[in-house]
UniProtKB/TrEMBL annotation:
InterPro entries: Globin-like_sf (IPR009050), Globin/Proto (IPR012292). GO terms for molecular function: heme binding; oxygen binding. This is Group III truncated hemoglobin. Gene3D superfamilies: Globins. It comes from the Bacteria.
Length: 126
């Protein structure tokens, strides 16, 4: 099994990951009903984000935190949503890739999810 080294690897990872998310009744509605994502249009943006975050390449410039804070205003994002997201993320990485970048992307995903939960919790309590 190869490590994550290219944008194409990240696109493949995101496609497989979102297949899991959209198959999970506990979380699918956030993407389909609330965010109403067009998956084929969204996948390249996800790959761009992770390319910037993991490989330090590319030019992703959107504010991911703000996007999720706005989503939280439409539908509260609860800790269990993040747990489900992380479980599917880690499992998808492990099923398709192996190596230092594969471990690093899981660590970064956990860090991002933790910070998002803290920011959302702060906003909800203000």
């Amino acid at each position: 099994m190869n490590d994550i080294t290219t944008w194409a690897d990240l696109l493949h990872l995101m496609r497989q990951f979102y297949n899991k998310l959209l198959s999970d009744d506990r979380i699918r509605y956030i993407f389909t009903d609330i965010a109403q994502i067009d998956l084929e249009a969204h996948l390249p943006h996800l790959a761009d984000f992770w390319e910037q975050t993991l490989l330090r390449e590319g030019n992703y410039r959107k504010n991911v935190m703000q996007i999720h804070l706005e989503l939280n205003e439409k539908e509260p994002l609860r800790p269990e949503h993040f747990q489900i997201w992380l479980k599917h993320f880690d499992k998808t990485v492990d099923e398709h890739f192996k190596g230092s970048n594969s471990e690093l992307i899981k660590t970064r995903a956990l860090s991002i999810a933790t910070i998002m939960q803290l920011k959302i919790s702060q906003k909800n309590h203000n």
